């Protein structure tokens, strides 16, 4: 699912994974405000949590004591061709600094 949100000052694009889980979701946001120009594209990625309560507690304890994995935290989002084209249109509009058409 690709959801585009348009407001006077900013654009958002939500992209969810083909598998359908909300844990595999990311969001693009950019602002088009003449008063506060911002030429930065924000990309927010949701990283999945462990399902078991004791795994979440263990991860919290490791975080509290400063443990960091040398590999980082990774997840994936599967994108089909239609979503890729919608992302291309959104990013092209950002580069050209205009609003894309609503779908």
Q: Any overview of this molecule?
A:
The model has no long low-confidence stretch (mean pLDDT about 75). The longest helix has 16 residues, at about 80-95. This protein has one domain. It has a four-stranded antiparallel beta sheet with strand order 1-2-3-4, covered by helices on one side. The protein is extended and about 45 Å long. It starts with a strand and ends in a 7-residue tail after the last helix. It has two helices and four strands. Strand 2 (about 10-15) and strand 3 form a beta hairpin. The protein is an alpha+beta fold and about 100 residues long. The chain is about 25% helix and about 20% strand. The relative contact order is 0.23.
């Amino acid at each position: 699912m690709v959801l585009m949100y348009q407001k006077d000052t900013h654009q958002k694009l939500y992209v969810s994974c083909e598998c359908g889980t909300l844990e595999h979701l990311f969001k693009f946001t950019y602002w088009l405000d003449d008063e506060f120009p911002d030429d930065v594209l924000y990309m927010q990625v949701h990283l999945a949590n462990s399902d078991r309560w004791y795994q979440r507690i263990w991860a919290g304890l490791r975080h509290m004591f400063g443990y960091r994995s040398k590999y980082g935290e990774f997840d994936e989002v599967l994108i089909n061709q239609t979503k890729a084209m919608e992302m291309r249109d959104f990013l092209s509009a950002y580069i050209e600094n205009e609003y894309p058409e609503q779908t």
